[in-house]
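Re: that chain you flagged

S.,

Sorry for the slow reply, it's been a week of failed gels. I finally had a moment to sit down with the sequence you sent. For the record, here it is as I used it:
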Amino acid sequence: MRCAVLGDPVEHSLSPALHRSAYRALGLDWTYDAVRVPRGGLADFVTSLDDGWRGLSLTMPLKREAMPLLTSLDSWTALAGAANTLLLDVYPEVPPGGRYEDTPWPEAPRRLETTYALDEGGERRFAKQVVSLEGEDERVTLAHCREVEGTSSRNLRVIPDSEFTVPADLVLVAIGFSHPEHDGLVADLGLDLDGRGNIRAGAFATSLPGVFTAGDSRIGQSLIVNAIADGRRCARIVERYLAGSGNGAGP
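Prediction finished late last night. Pasting the structure tokens below so you have them in one place:
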């Protein structure tokens, strides 16, 4: 029996190595190859197959081209308009109990968020970072990625020579809160930013005299109780500034 992964590009695919290893372990005399099939060529390739073929794996954009060729599909595939989901997570897999070696108790454990897409055949790859997207005709075609090490944005390190690409025709960015919006008030006031994109304000005073900040805009995403406490501390600094004591005022 013959099987293959199709796509263009397709050289990056690990499917041949994984499937061949499984065939050997199961004692199957099957073959699995990587076959270059460009955009628009899936239908012709499928019609040319003989009875010796058992199955095909597809990379983007062929996953979308497969939709009209299917005789049946589940509701999630129909909703997504494609038959596979890949989730790239910049951090390593969360250990049992939710604690990396550098986050012992009493620090808050990490939670491994999941989604139904992973239960429907999606794949999750850890310690992978997307650095840029590439496309044509105003559509994305490739995600340029690299491997990283670290458990937080403070200690994230790039692994040299680990760059790779992932074919894609739909990319959803799910990073939550990264820093306050720079367009608008922050940019108009010309406020200095720290290395994480938050407003630089060590003692609540920004780089513009008389302008103060607190909470997520200063310390980054955190718990609501931290934002409330930060706001109260900032209020005391602002009160002293307005009273003319000078404490906390200025950059």
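What I noticed first: Strands lie at 2-7, 31-36, 53-58, 86-89, 123-126, 128-136, 139-149, 157-158, 164-167.

Talk soon,
D.
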